[in-house]
Task: structure prediction
Amino acid sequence: MFPTITSEDVLAAYKSLRQSVNQTPLMYDPYLSDKYKASIYLKREDLQIVRSFKLRGALYAINQLSDDELAKGVICASAGNHAQGVAYTCQLKKVNGIIFMPTTTPRQKIDQVQYFGGKYVKVVIQEDTFDKSNVAAHVYAEKHNLTFIEPFDDLNVILGQGTIGVEIHQDLVANGDQADYILLPVGGGGLISGVSAYAKDAMPTSAIIGVEPDGAASMKLAIEQGGPVALEKVDKFCDGTAVAKVGDLTYHYTKEFVEDFITVPEGLVSQMILDLYTRQAIVVEPSGALTVAALDKMADEIRGKTVVCLISGGNNDINRMAEIEERAMVYRGLQKYFIVKFPQRAGALKDFVTDVLNKDDDITRFEYTKRINRSQAPVFIGIQLGKRENLESLLRRIEAFDSNYINVTENPSLYQLLV
Result:
């Protein structure tokens, strides 16, 4: 039997947290509003103390522990924002904490967790994946009698994340407005569970829409299958929402309160990250751009409406920008990859540039896949198109150059292997 959540429960959590977390702004966005012919507001959780909403759930959950539990310490497993939220809370409340992180976690994120936690937090780097690290953390917690702070499938975490809904409601009322749609990113489901539980009573005319990346749509699958089911494969690009299986609690609340779900391709998310940065100087992580990317998929539906998009976090590693630009270019149809056989003679590349490429195309990658002493050898080649309209004529000329060429961009297995 699942406990009932009401708007009063979320409001109580809000009153508990409001002195300890930033009440982040709900900002009207002129650029997006003009682009989509709608009133678009951005809820800026990237401006939270730890640059993501995860602080709310971690802090509220730890606030509910007894003095005895606090004295024993807390533990969690996370490769990102949840770890930072728990670490910050440990230092704030002077509680000892242990945070398990997989070996694949970037050094920058490990350093941030240690910075927020200070002397109160010990970071344990163990196992090669989050799932294995999570199992190890639970074993350690049981052995040492520590309280585990779950990332999403916990009632108090859900209530803490739900406080975002209270702030959205307050700011909309202050602006004399109400939302037709509230778009929320979905990973494990804690955020959308809490916000939708509050909105059901406080904002009954607002449709709550969950947004997931195409490569990690675990809540959509759960709704379709009638319960949480693990995805066979997860694209980890949107790492903040790359959850293979949603929680039992979060599935229950989401099924009850959420209007609909939408998935967006990771390439479109990449494009929105770049747009938000170049046009509005907003730095977001991939999961933080999900709701803005969803506007493209809902363009006709939202025309003339009021829409709130949650920017869930801004912890974007600068070292990922090359990957983000690459995905955006592929999504827009401007970056293509091919395997083409080249004659093994001087001037072959010059002939390809002169006879095959359009004048505004460019070669971004060129490498032999196999060096052999024959008359021809296969080359892996990346081409950036000057404009999408160049593709048809380019393909004709590549076929004339090598009738057996392979379009790697259209072959998912080869693309993942080579790119």
About this structure: The chain has three domains: 7-52+161-324, 74-145, 333-418. Residues 7-52+161-324 form a domain with the Rossmann fold fold (CATH 3.40.50.1100).
